[in-house]
Amino acid sequence: MAAHYDVLIVGGGIAGLSLASALAGSCSVALVEAEQELAYHTSSRSARQLIPSYGPDVVRELTVRTLELIAARDAQLPEPVLTPRSFMLIGTEESVRAEGSGHMNAITHDRALKLCPALVPGTFSAAGLDTGSFACNAPLLLEDHRQRAEAAGADIITGARVHSAQRLGSGWEIGAGQEAFEAGVLVNAAGAWADELAVISGVEKLGLQPYRRTAAIVDVEHPVPGHSPMVAAADHTFYFRREGTDVLISPSESVPSGPEDARPRPGDVERLIVKLNQLTTLGIRGVRRAWTGLRTEVADGVPVAGFDAEAPGFYWLAGQGGYGFQTSSAMAELAAAQILAGQGTGHSTVADHHPASRTAEALAATRWSIRR
Ligand SMILES: Cc1cc2nc3c(=O)[nH]c(=O)nc-3n(C[C@H](O)[C@H](O)[C@H](O)COP(=O)(O)OP(=O)(O)OC[C@H]3O[C@@H](n4cnc5c(N)ncnc54)[C@H](O)[C@@H]3O)c2cc1C
What we know:
Elements: E1 3-10, H1 14-23, E2 29-32, E3 49-50, H2 57-74, E4 82-84, E5 87-91, H3 93-99, E6 105-107, H4 109-115, E7 126-130, E8 134-136, H5 138-151, E9 155-157, E10 162-168, E11 171-176, E12 179-188, H6 194-200, E13 209-220, E14 230-233, E15 239-243, E16 246-250, E17 255-256, H7 268-279, E18 284-297, E19 304-307, E20 314-318, H8 328-342, H9 355-365
Parallel strand pairs: 1-2, 1-12, 2-9, 5-14, 12-20
Antiparallel strand pairs: 3-8, 4-8, 5-7, 6-7, 10-11, 11-12, 13-16, 13-17, 13-18, 14-15, 15-16, 19-20
Helix pairs in contact: 1-5, 1-8, 2-8
Bound molecules: flavin-adenine dinucleotide.
The site of flavin-adenine dinucleotide (FAD) has 41 residues, from helix 1, strand 13 and strand 18.
């Protein structure tokens, strides 16, 4: 016999887990994850930085709200999820101006060098600093969501890939692994597989595209001082930041991929090391570990949150691209409010079918809750 829930969330990454903890207690919730462990894919492969000046306007607003929500929760945790860590953009005047707006202030070349003495003078001409940026203890945040969701009664089932989903009366009938479920609302938080899940469910795809991004922890001759910001090239060719006595580096590539368990390609990290050893005095000696994740987005890069206008009870929570952590709590707050308002009615709370307007419209409706 099928287990029945008000809401069934597909995907145990930061998107699905944040929503499970936001919803649990208000309705019956199950989360199903294909892998044996939660957050196996992109959510365990991020750079763990929350940057209010990064991304389109909607993302920036969601980031500010996410920071508020996590900070409020931090007050109740034995150790904090958030630790202040500024974010610095370097490049030409034009590139820094084009990329850095909102929460970012222009700083002098000298100040940039003081903040990050590893930079070689003359390799950049302009810099911007976002002092409202935070390092995020991602494993702790994920675990806190899991614990809160389960404590409030949510069921979390791993090793259960959704292989079938069909509309049944006013809800959904779902097959996942060996299990069968019925749910009023089916939430698509399947990351790089979100369009695939739509197809399985008989719902039109949104055109979500996963893009590869690689990162590595490297051993350096000259460790970065503790107060140094995360440093990124405004032309999107690299970023680096301190990771204890090591350094995290990324070539910032954005290469289209299918949904898969992505792995680094030979040469990507090695070429970046050659480049960073010219642009900095880090003295990178070797790679401790490297990984690749998929940043999945729709064409305009705005995350998708809302009921599908043509598939009653099918809720999209996808397309978070490179902002999945920094938008997570705010997206979950919005999604929970919309799901609880529209739950079981088969009624779409977001009229426009265009994905870009879904988050924007949802934001407009809850603007009162966003700090300005
Ligand atoms: C190198 C790199 C650096 C990044 N740095 C940052 C950063 O500093 N800050 C930030 O905010 N973001 C960052 N990101 C982006 C962030 O990691 C992602 O936006 C976020 O992890 C996406 O979370 P998700 O839950 O949507 O997807 P995922 O973590 O991929 O979770 C989706 C889950 O759905 C499951 N699934 C798929 N299909 C099915 C199915 N049919 N049945 C059951 N389960 C299914 C998958 O197994 C997967 O576990 C970075 C990404 C990369 C790659």
